[in-house]
Each structure stands twice: as C-alpha cells, then as structure tokens.
Amino acid sequence: MIIDKLGDLQYAGKSSREAGLMIQTTSFAWQTPVYSSTLTQISGKSAAAIVPNNRYDNVAQVFPLRTVPGLNPVQLMRAHRAALDWLYKVTPDQYQKIEFTGVPNTYYLGIPSAVSAMTFVTDYATMSVTMSMPPFAYDTDGDVYQPIAEGQTFANDYDVTAPPLIHVTGNGNGSFDLNGKTYKVIGVKGDLWLDCDNEVAYDSNNDALPNAVEFDDYAFPALAPGNNTFSNITGVGLEMKPHWRQLF
After folding, report:
1. Using CA atoms, how far apart are residues 24 and 104, in angstroms rounded to an integer?
2. 59, containing H or E segment
3. CA distance 71 to 77
4. How confident is the model over 135-164, as pLDDT tens digits?
5. Mean pLDDT for the chain?
6. Do 214 and 176 meet the contact criterion of CB atoms below 8 Å apart?
7. What region, left, alpha or beta, does residue 49 occupy, with left being phi > 0 and alpha being psi -120 to 50 degrees?
8. How many CB atoms lie within 10 A of CB 203?
9. Which of 41, 122, 192, 223 is 20 to 30 A from 140 (CA-CA)?
10. Pair 240, 164: CB distance under 8 Å
C-alpha cells in the first residue's frame, strides 16, 4: 500500500524532515476521491434523482506527523516554529506540489486547510496537517514539453482526462484539430499558452487573453483516455505538457 512507502512529506519543494517531522504511517489513512453529484428527492419516487456535477470533489487528506525522538522542551518549541515555517513559507493562495520520497515520479497538489496543535509526549511531539487536495496523482513525465507534429498521436494510459498546457508559437491566426475537433487561435504574437486545466489563454507576460481563442463553447482541448491525434495544424507551432494524471 502507498502508506507503507511514503517516506517524508515534501510540500512546496521543502521536506518535512527539514522541520524535524516525519509521517506516522501507523495512524495514516489514505482518503478516496468522491465523484460530485446532487441527489434530489422527488415526491412519489423512492429513489432520488441524480444530477452529476461533472467533477470530483477535493480530498481532505490528514497527514499525522511526529518529531524525531530525544528532544527537550526547548527543542520541541523550536520544532513547532519550524513546522509553521515549513507549511507557510509560501502563501497558500494556490496549489503547491506534494511529493513523497518513497513514491518516485509522482506528485500531488494541495494546500494546508487545517493544522492541529502540537502535542508534547515525553521526548517527542505529534501534530497533524490537513491538505485540501485535488484527487489526482500526476506523472512527473507529464510536466515535460513534448513537440507536436502533424498527425501525431499521444496515448493517455489512464482512465481520466488530462488537461494539457499547450504552447503555441507563431504570428497571426492559426488552428489545429485534436481528435477531429478544431481549435482556433487569433492574433498570436510570438507565444501563446493554453492552460487547459484553468481554461485560460495567456502571453509571455502572463496576461490573460480571452479573445485569443475561438473554441466551441469556450471548451479547451483535453486529452481523453486512449489515443489523441493532432491534425490540420495551420499557421502555428505546437508543443505541450500533457499533465498525465490518475485518480489516487
């Protein structure tokens, strides 16, 4: 099981061990994603009507932590400060990477949503951190740009859709097809990025350009499970980070 090999917890590029903390795997419970839907009771029917919300809810994942043994009270107080510095060295206003040394080539996303008090137990202390996490495990290989050629097919080996980051280069208008659906870009000036997860287009200055795309229903490209083929690439160059992911 994953909890048998987690190792230390890395958040926003910093290891919990740098703050003197390690995961208590004996009291660790790995949560399960839940598909979001609304159940509506209808008069005269014994079964509620299901209205799908077409998404998975965030997972509230609790990480039980403890300090290394052999600390005196002053060292334990310092450990508490080190834990807060570890968690809040970056402002939790956007998701940060969460990694485990025992689970290579995989990362998760999350932010701290609750931090317990630190409880002192003889020569060590315990605390827990709750992370609000999108319910996906991401492949680190999916964060590497891959060039896109005419007629090229990319295989999504997982059962969930992957939202790529597509880098568009060129000047003027262009278009491409993905799995037979056409996506048009307007007025490209050198570089344009299509963030398909957050459904936003932006330039090299990170300025949003909502008028730079013409997509049906403003639906950004997505890599469906199975094969995904790019074709009819016109007037632009393309590369992408596929952001392969699976439910954890």
Report:
1. 19
2. strand 59-67
3. 10
4. 999 999 999 999 999 999 999 999 999 999
5. 91
6. no
7. beta
8. 15
9. 192
10. yes
